[in-house]
What does this fold into?
Amino acid sequence: MKKAVYPGTFDPVTYGHIDVIKRGSKIFDELIVAVGHNPFKNPIFSVQERMDMLSNNTKEMQNTRIDYFDGMLTDYMKEVETNIILRGVRTVSDFEHEFQRALTNRVLSADMETVFIMTSQEYSFLNSSLIKEVVSLGGDISKFVPSDVEKLLRQNFISS
It folds into this structure.
């Protein structure tokens, strides 16, 4: 059985993330979408909120589960007993960044393998920072995120 982990901050969950999850769930027998705590990022949503957003938008994918990890990804990978990391790549600069991560993970744990999946063209420009900027300025983000995520984003920026 092939099991992979798709790690990320998912702050917020975008249609690009969901695209990678759907496609990854067709490749692997089990896909764990792991919400990570990154001390260098300042997320606007709690871990539980991000996990709920992911759960709400991946319900139909029976072989996908949502989890959380804190600390080193390689340690988490050992904990869930897999060595396959799934990463979505949008641009050449994404690939360069992800390539460095993949090599670092392999140095930290020699059996780690990273599988890259190209984001679908319609989501290739999306990133969470851009979406947060658009919503903070009152723009329409309905084409970028599911409606439940949009609602939470709008609530968050209205109360800020």
About this structure: The chain has one domain: 3-123. The helical segments are 15-27, 47-57, 73-79, 92-108, 128-136, 147-159.
